[in-house]
Amino acid sequence: MAYAGVSGPSGPSPGTAPASGGRTAITLTCGLVGYPQRRFIPATASAAVIWASYAFLIGRLGGQAFADRPWVGLLLALGLTIAVSAVIEVARRAWGWRRRLGKRSQRRVAEEEGG
User: Fold this and answer.
1) Where are the domains of the chain?
2) How far apart are the two ends of the chain, measured CA to CA in Å?
């Protein structure tokens, strides 16, 4: 199966499958920094197997659970995506806030000790 009408000899070309930006960036970076090929190939192969397995299982379970109401499955997926993104963003901002707060108190302590 080819995406957007582009395929290689064994299926989709790298970078044409949906959500492949991360995979492409990692592959390019590994090449640029000279990551050893004998470590890269097994890691990439196992990542591909893991990705294919969980994508298949999610699709299979979702297809069975929402066979009669695909819109419910779509709305659930979108809702979960938004919820997970929101939790990650809140955690990221809280972590940054705590970090800035810690630096301020360190500066205050240093100023009190120094003068």
Assistant:
1) 68-115
2) 71
